[in-house]
Amino acid sequence: MNKAQLDMFAVQGDLLPAEPARYALDPERVRGKLEAVLAELRRAEAMPWDRRTRAYHQLVFPQMTNALPPEEADRYRRAFEAELDRLA
């Protein structure tokens, strides 16, 4: 193994793994993406996504709301579920 490969397994301090990098989401950007998904659903008369795309949004949409204050996140999640129910 060369040095670059060994650096991938670097540890800090007392052999504890390095803290994984964290990505700070911009709440305004998140709101824009959430609104775009909701707008697509609200315009639709039937489910606009195939099974795979729907599964993706059902996984990612709630996770994205975690970047927002709890009350706002709950409103977005409820609106998303309501649209999915309407289109089911």
Secondary-structure map:
Blueprint: H1 3-7, E1 11-12, E2 16-17, H2 27-43, H3 51-65, H4 70-87
Antiparallel strand pairs: 1-2
Regions with pLDDT < 50 over 5+ consecutive residues?
Answer: none
Mean pLDDT: 88
What is the number of beta strands?
Answer: 2
- Shape descriptor reads elongated
Number of domains in the coordinates? 1
- Radius of gyration equals 19 Å
Q: Percent of residues in helical segments? A: 55-70%
Tell me what portion of residues adopts beta-strand conformation: under 5%
Specify the biggest β-sheet: 2 strands, antiparallel
How many H/I helices? 4
Structural class: mainly alpha
Ends: how far apart? 53 Å
Order of strands across the widest beta sheet? 1-2
Query: How would you spell out the order of helices and strands?
Result: HEEHHH
Can you walk through the features of this model?
The chain has 88 residues and is mainly alpha-helical. It has one domain. Helices cover 62% and strands 5% of the residues. It contains 4 helices and 2 strands; from the N terminus they run αββααα. It has a two-stranded antiparallel ribbon with strand order 1-2. The protein is elongated. 3% of the residues are buried.
Task: List its traits.
single chain, 88 residues, mainly alpha, two-stranded antiparallel ribbon, 4 helices
